[in-house]
Amino acid sequence: MVRLDKLERESRDFKRALVQITDLLVDQSERIDAVGRTLGARIDSIDKSLGGRIDELGVTLGGRLDRLIAVTIQERTYSVERLADIERRLTKLEEHAGI
């Protein structure tokens, strides 16, 4: 009989411990879920912010690249025209000198 009482007491203690462990696990699960939601929101915010900045940077760099290309083409055109003018003058000089 004493053994049975002791076994019942230990069984109750064991059940109580299981309930406490279950409560702790549920609490930890809720906390982890809350952290996950907060982290997800922050990641989304950072993603939107960075996405906007990257898009802005692309537009800015695209505009600068377009201007660089335009200036380069203009400079090369000017150089070719200048060389053609020098060639014409040289030809006229050679014709005038009889070379």
Name the descriptors.
99 residues; mainly alpha; 1 helix; rod-shaped
What's this, in brief?
This protein is an all-alpha fold.
Q: Would you write up a description of this structure?
A:
With 99 residues, this protein is mainly α. The chain is 97% helix and 0% strand. The protein is built from 1 helix and no strands. The chain has one helix at residues 2-97. It is rod-shaped. The model has no long low-confidence stretch (mean pLDDT 92).
Q: Would you spell out the secondary-structure blueprint of this structure?
A:
Blueprint: H1 2-97
* Biggest sheet statistics: none
Strand element count: 0
Give the % helix: over 70%
Structural class: mainly alpha
Distance between termini?
Answer: 136 Å
**What series of H and E elements makes up the topology?**
H
Please work out how many helical segments DSSP would assign.
1
Radius of gyration over all CA atoms, rounded: 42 Å
Summed over residues and divided by their number, the pLDDT gives a mean of 92
Low-confidence stretches: none
Shape: rod-shaped
